[in-house]
Amino acid sequence: MSKPTVAILGASSDRSKYGNKSVRAHLDQGYDVYPVNPKGGQIEGLTVYPTLAEVPVEDLDRVSVYLPPHVTLGLLEEIAAKGCREFWLNPGADAPEVVERAEQLGLRPIVACSIVDLGTSPGDFAAS
Length: 128
Fold this sequence. Notes:
Layout: E1 5-9, H1 18-28, E2 32-36, E3 42-43, E4 46-47, E5 60-65, H2 69-82, E6 84-89, H3 96-104, E7 109-111, H4 114-117
């Protein structure tokens, strides 16, 4: 059986940021994690993809967003084109205009914390 897949948009190498805590939380729960950040490089030992389109998986199980709404708005068409079973807008990424545009594109946004959905808390992933 294959592992579930997740792309983390707004992944960060800064362990105090939610974009990093999400990477670690999903890894901890057995996901194949694909961090996405225009800077590229590595986060938590994983290859970082500059764009979602470059993630080498089609129809991801989950896309989880940790970006400001104005940035997310510009990525919604790319997210819809990539495809995902679950589209998570975490706190701070969940502006009404983002939700509305996502729905227009056929995405069904889940407006909640994807880390909490895993049965854990962001506080469980200290910055050290």
